[in-house]
Amino acid sequence: MTAAAPAYRRILLKLSGEALMGGGAHGIDPDVLERFACEIRDLVADGVQVALVIGGGNIFRGAGLAARGMDRVTGDQMGMLATVMNALAMQDALERLEVSSRVMSALKINQVCEDYIRRRAMRHLDRGRVVIFAAGTGNPFFTTDSAASLRAIEVGAELLVKATKVDGIYSADPVQHPDAVFYSRISYDQALREGLKVMDTTAIVLCRDHGMPLRVMNINESGALLRLVRGEDIGSLVVSGN
Ligand SMILES: Nc1ncnc2c1ncn2[C@@H]1O[C@H](COP(=O)(O)OP(=O)(O)OP(=O)(O)O)[C@@H](O)[C@H]1O
Ligand SMILES: O=c1ccn([C@@H]2O[C@H](COP(=O)(O)O)[C@@H](O)[C@H]2O)c(=O)[nH]1
């Protein structure tokens, strides 16, 4: 029996920077990086065009640095540079698996990687290359969740997948509230009304206003991403509604 064709032609996958730490306190666990790269390779092998945004929470977050006294904009710039490091690490891991990829940065750092140019990004995707969008939106006071929504809309992704450490969206943070209720399907407005912190508000509003379907799923569940792009109901789906 042949496998089902993927349900999506092009997706944007937002990977949590923190998930890259594995069991560590910060930085990148090479085994975890390789595991995530294998999951992405399987999507590409299935014929899905994959754009990636990786967070920077495993290295720096501007808000955290500002809380310790640093100028917020400087902290955010360090956070954005942290996402470039994660992007380079992922590019390296993908290319070791013979998956062609490009890093495109919203901040100019073009001795290291390409600048973000939308039409070039779309061309890379059309050619089957994984495009890793680095440095978030290029502006302070934003997050990589917002960058993921923005880029997903810009490049015409059919689905934004937020791959994180929990199984999906709950009525409260399940890490702190183990009795929280799981939502398999929820509207953008309900997520905003209930102030659910799994994805930042700007990112959800962008998805809502531009009709970008959003899935939140657990990246640590092996094979789940592939099943998702093949149409299985994995994690939580955020769409229009009440
Ligand atoms: N209502 C909720 N449902 C699910 N998860 C929630 C909720 N509220 C808070 N969370 C937390 O949100 C986290 C998801 O965000 P994640 O760690 O991916 O954040 P991020 O800031 O995007 O990551 P990073 O900065 O590391 O890239 C989960 O680990 C979970 O503990
Ligand atoms: O558009 C953006 C995206 C990110 N930042 C800064 O980077 C860090 C890391 O991103 P996370 O989404 O938290 O993983 C973020 O905390 C910001 O400080 C940014 O300034 N602009």
Explain this structure:
Residues 10-218 form the Aspartate/glutamate/uridylate kinase domain. ATP binds at residues 14-17, 57, 61, 164, 170, 173. Keywords: ATP-binding, Cytoplasm, Kinase, Nucleotide-binding, Pyrimidine biosynthesis, Transferase. The protein has helices at residues 30-45, 62-67, 72-96, 118-126, 144-154, 188-193, 201-209, 224-229; strands spanning 10-15, 49-54, 101-105, 114-115, 130-134, 159-164, 169-170, 182-183, 185-187, 214-218, 236-239. The strands form two sheets. It has a nine-stranded mixed beta sheet, with helices on both faces. The N and C termini lie far apart (40 Å). With 242 residues, the chain is an alpha/beta fold.
Strand content: 15-25%
Instruction: Give the terminus-to-terminus CA distance.
Output: 40 Å
Order of helices and strands: EHEHHEEHEHEEEEHHEHE
Shape: globular
- What bound compounds does this protein have? adenosine-5'-triphosphate, the ligand O=c1ccn([C@@H]2O[C@H](COP(=O)(O)O)[C@@H](O)[C@H]2O)c(=O)[nH]1
Question: Helicity, in percent?
Answer: 25-40%
